[in-house]
Amino acid sequence: MRIVTADDAAINEGGRRLAAGELVAFPTETVYGLGADATNARAVAAIYAAKGRPSFNPLIVHVADTATARRIAVLAPHAETLAAAFWPGPLTLVLVRKAEAGIADLVTAGLDTVAVRVPSSDIARRVLLAAGCPVAAPSANRSGHVSATEASHVAEDLAGSVALIIDGGPTPHGLESTIVDVSGECPVLLRPGAVTAEMLEAALGMVITRSGGDAAKPSAPGQLSSHYAPRATVRLEADEACDGEALLAFGATIPDCTGPSFNLSPTGDLIEAAANLFTALRVLDGKGVTAIAVMAIPDEGLGAAINDRLRRAAAAR
Ligand code: TXA
Ligand code: MG
What we know:
Elements: E1 2-5, H1 8-19, E2 24-27, E3 32-37, H2 41-51, E4 60-62, H3 66-72, E5 73-74, H4 77-86, E6 91-97, E7 113-117, H5 122-131, E8 135-136, H6 151-158, E9 164-167, E10 178-181, E11 188-191, H7 197-204, E12 209-210, E13 233-235, E14 245-249, E15 261-263, H8 270-285, E16 291-294, H9 302-315
Parallel strand pairs: 1-9, 2-9, 4-7, 6-10, 11-12, 13-16, 14-15, 14-16
Antiparallel strand pairs: 2-3, 3-8, 4-8, 5-6, 6-7, 10-11
The protein binds threonylcarbamoyladenylate (TXA) and magnesium ion (MG).
Residues 138-139, 147 line the site of magnesium ion.
């Protein structure tokens, strides 16, 4: 890991490393982000491993401009209004994703919506242009720690897992972006931030719904409602798949299975398994089976996040 001052060389190196599938931390106007190519599932899985998050929370995709956002997601009229008023800036919009854009399922935790933001930080914008790909980036801190607002905070939390930290000094806002869901009929404020509810209402010319819960706390990460829920039932710790079941396998030794199956990682690699998880659930769920039988997955490292997601899927009745 290296900390480098945000000059041209550092920004170009950051862009090159992101495009190559590595993790790069960079400043935005809100907090430092831990970035990865959003179209590279393995790179995105490495974000979760680095943060030590015990669950998969959908991530924000950062792009350099609104035109690029339109290639990734549908900007309905309310979204266009908010983008015109607040982008670039500390506002994240939850939008209906365009499947053809190739955003990894792990970025959105399998959802049909994607959170997108165009940062106003000049360094962030130049990193995004240098990368040439949409960049998924949660706040660059270990899970449970406060968000990093200085390069040294990132280094303290993530030294072993990030290739490069681009140091742009302390971040101006020091608070995560406002998140508004504009994927449905009525805009919903999911997380308060520097763009306030009053500012949003003035731009939209309408009252905006606040999501339930404590407005002082960011909206509950990893909630079931913010995840794709399979239609089929999910059976855990399976050592066989019965008739009418699909098999979600892991590792080299798998039971016989006559129905559809998907091996998350034939070599037993948890990063690969995490990268494949949401795509696998979707593929198997699309086969019309009544249940998905899931082999046991080691509960260590990223396995804990995989098992958390699978337990939620199994309980989602
Ligand atoms: O200011 C920020 O937003 C910073 C900087 C780095 O840009 N990023 C950040 O990311 O705060 P993170 O991962 O810490 O927070 C992302 C939030 C989570 O609460 C997540 O649940 C929500 O965005 N989110 C992401 N995609 C979503 C979706 N499709 N639907 C609903 N919520 C979503
Ligand atoms: Mg965070």
